[in-house]
Write a structure and sequence with these properties.
Helices cover 9% and strands 35% of the residues. It is mostly beta strands. It has one domain: Metal Binding Protein, Guanine Nucleotide Exchange Factor, Chain A (Beta Complex). It binds zinc ion.
C-alpha cells in the first residue's frame, strides 16, 4: 500500500491498509486537513525529500510534522526525542479514497492538549 503526495515526489510505503482514521481538532490538523493513520516507524518507508515543521506555539513540541516542499501536502509526522519510538502518523488523505472511505473515524480532541 503506497501513499503519495499530490505531485508524487513523496511516497510512503505502508505495511497494510488502515483499519480506522483519526481526525484531530488541533489547530494544525484543522489547517492542514491531516487525517491520521498510525504505524511503527520501522515498518514504514518514506521516499523523497520532505521539509519539517515543528510547532513553536506549544510549551514542548513532541512531533515533527513533515510536508512535501513541492506541492505542500502534509505527509506524516514523527516523534521527537522520547516520543520518537513506536509510533508515527501518516496522512490518510494521501491514500486512494477507496482505501479509507467507510472506515471508522476516531475523533481526537487535540485542541485541548
Ligand atoms: Zn508533493
Amino acid at each position: 500500500m503506497v501513499a503519495r503526495c499530490h505531485c508524487g515526489k513523496v511516497t510512503i510505503e505502508l505495511p497494510h491498509a488502515p483499519s480506522e482514521v483519526t481526525e484531530c481538532n488541533c489547530s494544525l490538523c484543522r489547517k492542514t486537513g491531516f487525517r491520521g493513520i498510525y504505524y511503527s516507524p520501522d515498518e514504514v518507508r518514506v521516499s523523497g525529500a520532505v521539509d519539517p515543521y515543528v510547532r513553536a506555539d506549544l510549551d514542548e513540541a513532541c512531533l515533527t510534522n513533515w510536508h512535501c516542499p513541492t506541492c505542500g501536502c502534509a505527509t506524516h509526522w514523527t516523534g521527537i526525542g522520547v516520543h520518537a519510538a513506536g509510533r508515527m502518523g501518516v496522512n490518510a488523505r494521501l491514500l486512494d479514497p477507496a482505501v479509507v472511505d467507510g472506515l471508522p473515524v476516531k475523533k481526537v480532541d487535540g485542541a485541548s492538549w
